[in-house]
Design a protein that fits this description.
mainly alpha; 153 residues; single chain; 0% strand
Length: 153
């Protein structure tokens, strides 16, 4: 008969092992967000059943692996759209979204406006038309503090 403490130790060890694998899954999503990823592929890479991965990922990070993946994709998409040199379709492809419909819906849910509107607003805020990239001026915007001002210790 097993001692009860052995069962708890085994459970704790399994929990730590799962957390390590979940962190690897999250890191993989962060690195490979633009690639075709799905829960089954992530689970296979983590050597976990897909259902177990989804449940444990949600418990650890507060959202499903798919939701986390889409969050990473939308974050990257906002940066690309702010840059202004890519169209919405190009951004959708660059971040690995499987379709414009999914991309547009998830982007609007996350950001509050459709990607085309976001791109237009970002260009207007920057003062640059969305199709014209800014030319570097060669000027330094943040100069060092002058020598007469006290320096932080």
């Amino acid at each position: 008969m097993c001692h009860p403490a052995w069962g708890r130790a085994l459970t704790a060890a399994q929990h730590l092992s799962d957390l390590t694998r979940l962190r690897r899954v999250r890191d993989r999503i962060d690195r490979e967000y633009a690639r075709p990823l799905n829960v089954e592929a992530l689970a296979l890479g983590a050597n976990m059943p897909a259902g177990h991965l989804s449940r444990q990922f949600r418990l650890a990070y507060g959202e499903s692996p798919y939701s986390y993946l889409m969050t990473r994709r939308i974050e990257r998409a906002t940066a690309l759209l702010r840059r202004g040199d890519l169209g919405v379709t190009e951004v959708c492809s660059a971040v690995g979204c499987p379709s414009m419909g999914i991309f547009g819906t998830r982007f609007t849910e996350s950001v509050g406006v459709p990607p085309s509107t976001y791109r237009r607003l970002a260009a207007a805020a920057a003062g640059t038309p969305p199709c014209v990239p800014e030319e570097p001026t060669g000027q330094v915007r943040n100069r060092e503090a002058s020598a007469t001002e006290p320096q932080p210790a």
